[in-house]
Amino acid sequence: MNNTKYDLPDLTFVIPFYYDGEFRLENLQIVLKILGQFEANVIVIEQGNYQHFTNTDYYFDAAGINGKYWFIPNRDVTIMDGLFYRTRIINIGLKKVETKYAAIYDTDVFFESKNYLRAYQKLNENYTFVYPYDGKFVDVERHYIKDGIIKEKESFANGSYGGAVFVNLSKYQECGLENENLIGWSPDDVERQARVSILGNGICRIEGKCYHILHQKIGFASSANPFNEQNLKEYHKVMNMKKEELQDYIKTWNWK
What is the pTM of this model? Predict the structure, then answer.
């Protein structure tokens, strides 16, 4: 990685963090270092029984980023012990953003430098959502990464909406922000894309791949989530709504 700082003055990266193993913390530290190539803001918002992301100033300074950190105790947000209430944590983070744009950004992903810049440019062209990749999701072993440079790629999938999305924050607020009816690890990535699309907002994808740092499987993924059936019902409910129905439904959400 070179020492050039790319200017993204109106953007804040919002990174929801839940400690489910040392691998997650190590991946977060790698991602922060990669984001250090940009002049932008970063918010790390952690949920848990106690704080795992300690020495925050050190890691922000080491990465060369303008970072802020909040810790949200499980008792303040969770429905059951050990459950990462991802949509709510993201919303808490988004409400702390003071810039025009935000990037909802996972702890384990990164992109080519040009893709961040292109995504930011597209936001300036009045898109509501911009994905900094075209749907290809590539797994990368951590030991194949050095300063964000990919040494070897493992596997990939197509059509993904996970990892990261850059958003026009005021327009996303009109779309309801994250849907907190989706609890735990859920189809929040595909639901938000569908909802914003139904509401008629501009969505753009940037050519390229999302590089995902491999990690252990977590307990609340997919069918292991006890709220999985409820989440799928909510997703299909949104998917089957017309624009006017969805606008009325969003008005009932109390977290906006």
Answer: 0.94
